[in-house]
Amino acid sequence: MDNSSVNYFAETDFRGKRKPFGIKSEDRNRHIYVIGKTGMGKSTLLENMIIQDIKNGAGVGFIDPHGKSAETMLSFVPPERVEDVVYFAPFDLGWPIAFNVMEDVGPEERHLVANGLMSTFKKIWPDVWSARMEYILGNTILALLEYPDSTLLGVNRMLSDKKYREKVVDNVSDPTVRSFWLDEFAKYNERYMQEAGDAIKNKIGQFTSNPLIRNIVGQPKSTFDVRQLMDEKKILIINLSKGKVGEQNASLLGGMMITKIYLSAMSRANVSNSILRNLPPFYFYVDEFQSFVNDSFADILSEARKYKLSLTIAHQYIEQMPETVSNAVFGNVGTIVTFRVGPFDAEILEKIFFPTFTKEDLVNLGFAQIYLTMMIDGVGSPPFSAVTLPPIVNLGESFEEQIISLCRKKYAKSRQEVEELIKNWYKTSETAQLPIKEKFSHTEVTSKKTRQPSRPSFSESRKESLSLKDLKGKSLSKTADKKAGDPQKRQELKNALLEIMSERKEKIPTIKSNNFETPTSPSKKFESKQADKASSPQNDIGVKEDKSEEKQEEKKRQDKKEISEEILRKILEVDE
Predict the structure, then answer these.
(1) Shortest CA distance to 245 belongs to which of 415, 67, 364, 76?
(2) Secondary structure of 489-518 in the HEC alphabet?
(3) How confident is the model at residue 427 (pLDDT cuts 50, 70, 90)?
(4) Does an H or E element contain 9, and which?
(5) How many Å apart are CA 374 and CA 9, to the nearest integer?
(6) DSSP code of 180?
(7) Is pLDDT at 43 greater than 80 in this prediction?
(8) Averaged pLDDT, 60-77
(9) What distance in Å separates the CA atoms of residue 338 and residue 349, rounded to the nearest whole number?
(10) What are residue 286's DSSP bridge partners?
């Protein structure tokens, strides 16, 4: 047997003889679940397994919410694997590594990313979560996933910046998401829109206002490719020390990282079976995994093994898991290892280990003692007892400082550079975001007859006709007469325009008063008619004639309000 394909983690104590044993690579593909009270030896078991994977040249990922184990793993990286390490430490504020879970998400994966983020947010804010928040936030994330270079920072901006929102929605192709923004959100009254938006912005703002999170998730391009790490057998160590990062920040980053690793594993389905068979397994460890899991984690457990993603998850007690996740764990995990547990967990685990071990046995295990049932050549073993191996001692040189320095150089940017990038994103040129109506220039005017978009844009649905008053306020292009090289032609256009405006002026509705004709506004005309109506009764014929005249005058006013785009084109091409 090739010892490199076996990961040793414990030894049997049968008849006083101790013999180390481990689990084969193929059997690890059915995942490993470790449970036990704090201080019983779970972290040591994980560390020993990770160290062996690193020494054997395997691809490894490790999320550590405490930080100590992550730092220990760096010291065990051999010199030939120093270049393979990606050390992700969010608390290294001076050198933030870019990680954007919303980057380049295909149509088939958008709902997976959205659901992963939504489940993470729901887990972090269970007391304030509502159906309305979920509905609006879900559609916001789905819209942003279709917009190039979107990040989590775009959520609050989309809810507060109308021009940015219009630009994003114009790019949406999903009919359901597009309908929400055009047919629902746009019709919310201002008060409802503010109330709904503020609830989301207040929560998302807790993360995006923190430079620790903002400088990581606010960079549009991730500096490491998780799929590449998996295929090339790299080492990804994620230090989410809650004492340095904060519990909620750790939950957010850990949840996003799990989602990204799952999506990267699923992308292996795009290759042929022959290529997939030759792809290496990727061993992914998550300590205190209840801090990062959500309902979507159940899908990961059931699907990951198809794509050679082998999970080893550890935590303290069953109640920490949502019911959907606990059902998925006990339904999909091939190897279950238990240290000492409490009475409640013992009752549940007894169903797995009985009759070999009872709940009384489970609550009385000593330090480093375990009961387990494991996969052996694809078949589950009967329960048996063992003792975990002691910590592996590092007798070689530590390259920890070299790894940290190298990762900063390869995967991070300076804090000043990142903050300048984000600052510029918030200051995006208004011209680039304005709807067509608000950014008219002589180079952008196009005929409505020739422009036939496949779908109406968010901004176009809110356009109004350009009135004569608006037109007079426009400053004419100073470069226009450079394009219109013929002075005679410019003069002809000016004369034609003056003639049209003169004709329109003559058609302004008038009313007769004491044999004088006076131009009147619609409101004054209405007042005059009401006065006439009050002073003298009119017969039915008079009323009909008056209504007919009113319709004609209304039509004239409508004719007056709109200037054809052809005339506008001429105006903008002629210097005043």
Answers:
(1) 67
(2) HHHHHHHHHHHHHHHHHHCCCEEEECCEEE
(3) confident
(4) strand 6-14
(5) 12
(6) I
(7) yes
(8) 96
(9) 9
(10) 63, 313
Give the total residue count for the chain.
576
541, HSE (Cβ side, Cα atoms, 13 Å): 0
Q: Where does the pLDDT of residue 411 fall: very low under 50, low under 70, confident under 90, or very high at 90 and above?
A: very high
Gap between the Cα atoms of 104 and 145, Å rounded: 8
Identity of residue 236: L
Q: What is the DSSP letter of 97?
A: B
What is the pLDDT averaged over residues 465-481?
43
Q: Are 531 and 479 in contact (CB under 8 A)?
A: no
| Cβ-proximal residues to 396 (8 Å cutoff; 6+ apart), any chain | 78
CA distance 329 to 181: 38
Q: Are strands 516-519 and 510-513 parallel, antiparallel or unpaired?
A: antiparallel
CA distance 295 to 127: 17
Continuous H helices in 218-369: 226-231, 242-245, 247-266, 273-278, 297-303, 323-332, 343-353, 359-362
pLDDT in tens, 173-205: 999 999 999 999 988 888 888 888 898 999 999
What pairs with residue 512 in β-bridges?
A: 517
DSSP-assigned letter for residue 340:
S
- Note the pLDDT tens digit of each residue in 367-393: 999 999 999 999 999 999 999 999 999
Q: Give the pair of three-digit tokens for residue 282.
A: 């990727």
Task: Band the pLDDT of 5: cuts 50, 70, 90.
Answer: confident
Residue type, 49: M
DSSP 327: H
Q: Is 12 exposed, middle or buried (0-12, 13-18, 19+ CB in 10 A)?
A: middle
Contact of 387 with 13, CB cutoff 8 Å: yes
The tens digit of pLDDT for each residue in 265-278 reads 999 988 888 899 99
Q: Which strand (E) or helix (H) includes residue 369?
A: strand 369-373
- Cα separation, 365 vs 338, whole angstroms: 9
* pLDDT bucket at 504, cuts 50 / 70 / 90: low
Strands 282-287 and 235-239: unpaired
The amino acid at 477: S
Going by the DSSP 8-state scheme, the letter that residue 220 receives in this structure is S
CA distance 287 to 265: 20
Q: What is the pLDDT of residue 367?
A: 96
Q: Where are the alpha helices (DSSP H) in 82-189?
A: 110-124, 131-145, 154-160, 162-169, 175-179
Positive or negative: CA dihedral 148, 153, 158, 163: negative
In the block, residue with structure tokens 């919410």: 65
Nearest alpha-carbon partner for 329 in 365, 290, 362: 290
Q: Do residues 40 and 365 make contact, with C-beta atoms less than 8 angstroms apart? A: yes
The H or E element containing residue 61 is strand 59-64
Strand 510-513 and strand 17-24: the pairing is unpaired
Do strands 6-14 and 59-64 pair parallel, antiparallel, or not at all (unpaired)?
Answer: unpaired
Give 336's strand partners: 33, 373
- Report the pLDDT value the prediction gives residue 428, as an integer from 0 to 100: 66
The pLDDT score that the predictor gives to residue 529 is 45
